Amino acid sequence: MIQDCSDFKQGPAKKYRAGIFGATTVYAVAVLASVRWLQHNPSAPWKYGIAVLPVLPALFVPLAAVRLFREMDELQRQIQLEGLAFGFICAAVLTLTYGFLQNAGMPEVSWIWVWPVMGICWIIGLVAARRRYR
Hints:
Layout: H1 11-40, H2 47-51, H3 55-58, H4 60-71, H5 74-103, H6 114-132
C-alpha cells in the first residue's frame, strides 16, 4: 500500500512490512483478549483500561509509517502526502455527513469504523496521486 510492489520487497519497506505485521498481530490478539475479558467481567473496576488495551500495539503503526516516510525519496513522499491529504479530507467529509444524517434518524455507528474509512480514502488518494505522477 505504501510503495510500489517492486520496492516493497527490499530495504526500508521490508522493515515497515515486518513492523506492521508484528503490530497488527499483537493488536488482533489484544482485541480478542480484551473483548473476551470484558464479556466475562462487565463490571470490573479496570474495564476501561482493558477496553483500550488494543490501542497500545496500534501505536506502533504510525511510528513504522513515519520511519518509512523518512526513508522515502521525494517523489514517494509527495505521493504519500497527496494521498494522506485526500484521505483526511475525504474521511472528514464522509464522517461529518453521516453525523448529520444520524440527526435525521440514521442508525448510530461506532467510532471504530472511522479508521477503516480513513484507510480506504487514503488508498483512493494514493491511486489518484500515483496516476498523476506516472
